[in-house]
Amino acid sequence: MNGTISTSKGLLALSPLIVFLLLYLFLSLAADDFYAVPLTVAFLAASIYSLFIMRGLSIGKRFERLAEGAASPSVMQMLWIFILAGAFAATAKQMGAIDATIHLELTAVPPGFLLSSLFLASCFISLATGTSVGTIAALVPIASSMAEQTEASTAMMVAIVVGGAYFGDNLSFISDTTIVATQTQGCEMKDKFRANIWIALPAAIICLVLYACLPAVSVQPDNLGEVFYPAIIPYIYIIVAALAGMNVMLVLASATVLAGLIGIASSALTPFGWLKAMNDGIMGMSELIIVTLLAAGLMQVIRQAGGIDWLMQLFNSCHGSRRKAELSMAGMVVLTDFCTANNTIAILSVGPLARYLALRYNIPAKRAASILDTFSCMAQGIIPYGAQMLIASGLAAVNPLDIIPYLYYPYILGVVALIYIIIPRKECNS
Questions:
Q1: Per-residue pLDDT tens digits for 40-52
Q2: Residue 248: its pLDDT value, please?
Q3: Among 268, 328, 253, which residue's Cα sits nearest to residue 88?
Q4: Closest by alpha carbon to 332, among 348, 316, 313, 310?
């Protein structure tokens, strides 16, 4: 950090990000809908505003500064991962992998352990597919049907699915949050997974014990249909190959080929159907790709204007420490998620500052990525206006506020994550 940055200059440097958050938050509140304001438009408005805080440069040079951030190698790598993840996810879904996984999970566990099996199914499906939204969309109708066949609360059954969905969203190698967290912190996905598992797994085990202690609910799930179990192989391959250390882009590309070939062999896909599925998956990532480019350019302007240095200066003046730095990461990503109702965007916005804090206080990159991902998923899991909660409540015809008291996993995850920060384990700096 070069010299002392004044508060006025520091706030001016950070003002593009403040403009984005305020614009998005206030317009969303005015519309009474957090999805009425497109993220791309909010980031575009903040990016245009950022051009005016760069003094002494021509318009062309100011646009070059924005482009420098968007075109950085780390951002380009992130975009490639998004593209490949979209192609794989759509291919796997089209060839029946999600249906096979649901059937296997819900039939492998005795019916008397319905609550535990439903939670395990949600955990595994979200871990394999990397999407909390997809998991909720697939399992909530089943959970709702089970509640109708028993005396169980529909809100509680839905909450079990929502909680388990965030287990996988937090850990999956193809989750948007994992991709953004690891790329912004500069660590390998397998390393982040190994650090993150110390937070997510204990929380999941506590949840399982809690569900096992609740009064038994017994029902045999109906209408699951016949499935082709080999369709699960690509999901298992993704997890094993990534943990074995294979390059993530090679993992995703080869898994897409594997899923496509299995789909064609089982007649679940035609060759042209496979191509269409990949295209649909890639196009489904388009908004996230555009937002990533805009946000990266915005953060480049903030960085060059001295915003990051000013925040570091402010943090150091408050006698910062490693523990305070980690708590700050957690607090910033939670607050940003509450404002944006999008945990991927929350990590993308906070990631650069978290990286600076990690370097300054010798925090391993995998640990910083785990903290960002975990607390963003915890926050997203408990807000009633998040996309996941709105989809779940809509499918089950229950009020989102009725679901919140039963969200045991996000609450337990938050407590375990705080303990993880307060009582740090010894780990290698990487």
A1: 888 899 999 998 8
A2: 76
A3: 253
A4: 348
- CA–CA distance, 115 with 134 (Å, rounded to integer): 20
Token pair for 100 = 């096979």
From 221, 235, 225, 224, select the one nearest 93 (Cα to Cα): 235
Which tokens hold the place of 378?
Answer: 């915890």
pTM of structure: 0.77
| 3-state SS class at 318 | coil
Token readout for 62 is 């100011």
Confirm if 66 and 300 have CB atoms less than 8 A apart. Answer: yes
pLDDT at residue 20, as a whole number: 86
3-state secondary structure of 420: helix
**CA 107 – CA 103 distance, rounded (Å):** 6
Whole-number pLDDT of residue 226: 64
Residue 373 confidence (pLDDT):
96
* Tokens encoding 22: 């305020």
Structure-token pair, residue 306: 């001295």
Residue partners of 254: CB distance under 8 A and separation at least 6: 237, 241
Question: What is the per-residue pLDDT for 335?
Answer: 86
Residues paired with 113 in a beta bridge: 217
pLDDT beneath 70: ranges in the chain = 1-3, 105-106, 108-112, 149, 216-227, 316-317, 424-430
Task: Give me 332's structure tokens.
Answer: 């910033």
Rounded-to-integer distance, Cα 185 and Cα 183, Å: 5
DSSP 164-200: HHHHHHHH-TT-HHHHHHHHHHT--HHHHHHHHHHHH
